[in-house]
Amino acid sequence: MTPQGDSPTTRKIVLDGLWHNNPIFRQILGICSTLAVTNLVLNTVVMCTSLTLVTALSCLTVSLLRHWTPRNIRMMVQTLIIAFYVIIVDLFLKAYWPEMSRNLGPFVGLIITNCIIMGRCEGFAGSNKPIPSLIDGFFNGLGYSFILLGIACSRELLGMGTVLGFSIPWFTEHWDKWVIMVMPPGAFFTLAVMIWICRSIKPKEEKA
Amino acid sequence: MSINQELWTALVVCFSAVFTQNILLTTFLGMCPFTSVSREVKTAIGLGAAVVFVMTCTTILNWMAYHWILAPLGLEFYRFILFIIIIAAFVQFVEMVIDRYSPKLYQNLGIFLPLITVNCAILGASLFMVIRDYTLIVTVGWGFGAGLGWLLAILAMAGIRQKLNPARIPAGLQGPGITLIIAGLMALAFIGFTGVLG
Fold this sequence. Notes:
The complex is a heterodimer of chains A (208) and B (198). By secondary structure, chain A is an all-alpha fold. Chain A has one domain. Helices cover 64% and strands 2% of the residues of chain A. Chain A contains nine helices and two strands. A two-stranded antiparallel ribbon of chain A has the order 1-2. The longest helix of chain A is centred in the C-terminal third of the chain and has 31 residues, at 130-160. Chain A is globular, with a radius of gyration of 18 Å. Mean pLDDT of chain A is 80; it is low at 1-6. Chain B is an all-alpha fold and 198 residues long. Chain B has one domain. Chain B has nine helices and no strands. In chain B, helix 3 (41-73) crosses helix 4 (79-101). The A-B interface holds A 28-33, 35-36, 76, 79-80, 83-84, 86-87, 90-91, 105-106, 109-110, 112-115, 118, 180, 183-189, 191-192, 195-200, 203, 206-208 and B 25-32, 35-36, 77-81, 84, 88, 118-124, 127-128, 130-131, 170-173, 175-178, 180-181, 183-185, 187-188, 191.
């Protein structure tokens, strides 16, 4: 489908999702469900993949159903669509990767209340065509994932001297494990520094 | 387990939910309202009180729904949908009741109620309750404690941020950035409670 008229171009959607309107450091949305698992890179990869898939597919579905959804119950419909995809992800992980499912605990379920998905469904997919919505959801998910992966990599590296479980040469010999980085306060500090860096690169007036 | 033991467990769970395993500072649930509504003490108290109330009630309701309806039918995987619906319906119901019987309370608390439906902490509390296999009595302690812990965290944050108003903060760090750093320091302080009461 070619973008025409008032619908934004694909290029703009992609750039908005990845950078200009990045869910995390522009909108500070949806960190709840994922920040807790950023102490290990592997957990974060699984969480971010699930989240990106759920966002993209929910946006597609919401957009496909937008003409048949009564306006006043649309929030409930969107929540149910999101919950539907989250259940699929949850069952899939339980069946094929029970270990990971145990590690992530309740956080897979919490994707449902992740504000980003709701925000994209409400803000974009509800009033746009299916294909742009799918792209929008996907790239917002990616924009979210790359920040969280950055956080996860630095936390695991500084806290345990490993990335994805592989030990990094210099860090195992000359680095004292900075345990606080893999504990909850480390996540707050790393995210704050991430936001600081990203906002300094591209400053913009915003109230949060 | 005797009733006395269970009450004691509930108390311990409640205490640890407030301090050592604070739902906001250790599992990051409810961050969105935490960063956006924590600018004034008054609104923070309003939202916090609403969270305590809704969290206590919905964890109990969800416990009943899960153990008495879903588990016997073997439909545990429907819990996400059921929990969300129960939470949304409960919040709507409370909103109507408060609106009808106490307009004053509605003015103070009412505006926060719709916000709560999408608060991750509420759903998170219910999911933790299922995963940790709490009994009904322990669930009461857990729901109340988790809510109280959230209230405590947002209240402290609002107090600190009010004092912070005249401070000069680097441009990129203003707003959410500094909030997160303060939250990190608070989390560090709360780690100090580890080991108290088992």
